[in-house]
Design a protein that fits this description.
Blueprint: E1 3-7, H1 13-20, E2 24-28, H2 43-46, E3 47-50, E4 53-56, H3 62-68, E5 73-76, E6 94-95, E7 99-102, H4 109-117, E8 121-124, E9 134-138, E10 141-144, H5 147-155, E11 159-162, E12 182-185, E13 188-191, H6 201-210, E14 214-217, E15 230-231
Parallel strand pairs: 1-2, 4-5, 7-8, 10-11, 13-14
Antiparallel strand pairs: 1-15, 3-4, 6-7, 9-10, 12-13
Length: about 230
Amino acid sequence: MKKAALIDPRTPDDVKKNLAGLELEICPVPLTDRVSEPISGHPDIQIFIHNNKAFTHPHISGEFIKSIERFCEIKVCSAELNTKYPHDISYNIACTGNYAIHKTECAAPEIKKYFSDNNIDLINTRQGYSKCSTLIVDNRNIITSDNSIHKSAESNGLNSLLIAQGFIDLPGYNYGFIGGASGLLDKTILLSGRLDHHPDIDRITEFIKSKGRDILYLSENRAVDIGSILIV
């Protein structure tokens, strides 16, 4: 069955082209005025995905839901988004499979119930933008530039590579985050651009490859935080 890539509609054209070349259907997430403009189309702000289940905020368009319903099961949740933190992080959850990392009191209630019903451990962290901040390598390995996520993950038995903050673009902010510049397709880590300029590029590459994952750069330009590439 064909898969879809949920992306920010402002994603660079070369990234879109290369995603389409992977035989993925491109599904742009509608811009919302309920969060800050730079992240208004970020999939990981509006949607949480796990095991082909998509949890969305209640104001996402019906047209968008119809565009993805053949790829995944959809649950429209009660938690509304707004520009005031932490009311923009209810869906920005990093989930490795059996572990979910988030500022736990801020997760949408329906997602917390789903975690409880499916024996997924919810790891609390001070960082509310946990999906933006976390590259998921596999069920037990992550990469992050956030020290609170790194410490919380390791204290719960996950392997975490802590890298330098910055060196990833995000128009409207000083810098973006590695989770927001990435996606996972089968055993391939998708990156929105190059990380050659990153001081930890060798450590990042070695860590990913040591876990049996490949890396695919979707652009020859610098990596940009596009709110994650969510595959369903």
